[in-house]
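User: I'm putting together a small comparison set for a docking exercise, and I want a reference complex before I start. The sequence is below, and the ligand is nicotinamide-adenine-dinucleotide. Could you produce the 3D structure with the ligand included, as structure tokens?
Assistant: Of course. I'll restate your input first, then give the structure tokens for the complex.
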Amino acid sequence: MKRVLITGAAGFLGSHLCDRFIKEGYYVIGMDNLVTGDLKNIEHLRSLPTFEFIHHDVSNYIDVPGELDYILHFASPASPIDYLKIPIQTLKVGSLGTHNCLGLAKAKGARILVASTSEVYGDPLVHPQTEDYWGHVNPIGPRGVYDEAKRFQEAITMAYHRYHGVETRIIRIFNTYGPRMRLNDGRVLPAFIGQALRGEDLTVFGDGSQTRSFCYVDDLVEGIYRLLMSDYAEPVNIGNPVEITIKQFGEEIIKLTGTKQQLVLKPLPQDDPKQRRPDITRAQQILGWEPQVTREEGLRRTYEYFKSLPEEELYKAANYRF
Ligand code: NAD
Ligand code: UDP
């Protein structure tokens, strides 16, 4: 049985990856320090003989007994309000955490895939973003803690590939959504749906003309799986190229939820990218991948999930654990 270590396993994407690898017949070791994740996301896996959970901060030396075939490094705060509240931890998990994962991959002879992000392009001057664009990042702005950690992550990953011959994969993930996002994580989709469910107005930052391109989680997981199984070591964008303004997105959520509330404008956070859309030519050519789930369908599934949560979840404040 092949063995895979997934860091960030109790988070949104990590928990979906655990599900996928269990389904594919792997022995899955989920690792997480629960700083932004929640054990309830993997509760359904914990009694399986092919799943184990290790509570550990990957910014510290990682010790995993036995063999490993694959490592998926997904541990990191991912939403702007999370990484603004825990900036040092964010820098550490992207740098030291990645270094530890790469060292483990080298020691075990495992192939490693690291979760990078469209944020490496910063507030992009090239649109849509191709993988050969080097980006436009403010290193000392508040978002720099995330963007620069992820840029360092890519650099050290390529160095381990070139210098140590470790089999590495780098995925640049564009805004992804779906069940198990945290309602209070501040990202736009849970923010809007949470506000609609609580009967509050929907807070649009800036004038809402900034764009994003939203990918449903199942499509992303398929892209990750294909990239891991490929022999391609350069970064690959995975995201849905259908672009929308945040104002239009708010209007879609109003329609989806049937709320009587309205959009209200709030100040735009510093360095908020004005536009974002992946060029997915590389993923199409190398992985034969493109998204299958329309935004209408993905939003419907995600709304069903949020509606099914106990009411107290709607009013829970973010709780960071160290
Ligand atoms: P999330 O916050 O739901 O999950 C992150 C998980 O990592 C949490 O369970 C958290 O507790 C854990 N974690 C954080 N620091 C850790 C540490 N030092 N040691 C061990 N565990 C730690 O976020 P997500 O949306 O699932 O994002 C997962 C990964 O994907 C991140 O690396 C993020 O940068 C990347 N990513 C996500 C998106 C997206 O749209 N969701 C986009 C680009 C990149
Ligand atoms: N946003 C918004 N209202 C909110 C939360 C976010 O208008 O309540 C905006 C945010 O300013 C950004 C976009 O929605 O322009 C996407 O934000 P998110 O935090 O989801 O992701 P990121 O900025 O990392 O793409």
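The chain has a mean pLDDT of 97. Residues 79-80, 175, 186-188, 191, 203-205, 210, 212, 246, 269, 272 surround uridine-5'-diphosphate (ligand 2) (CB under 6 Å).
User: Thanks, that's exactly what I needed.
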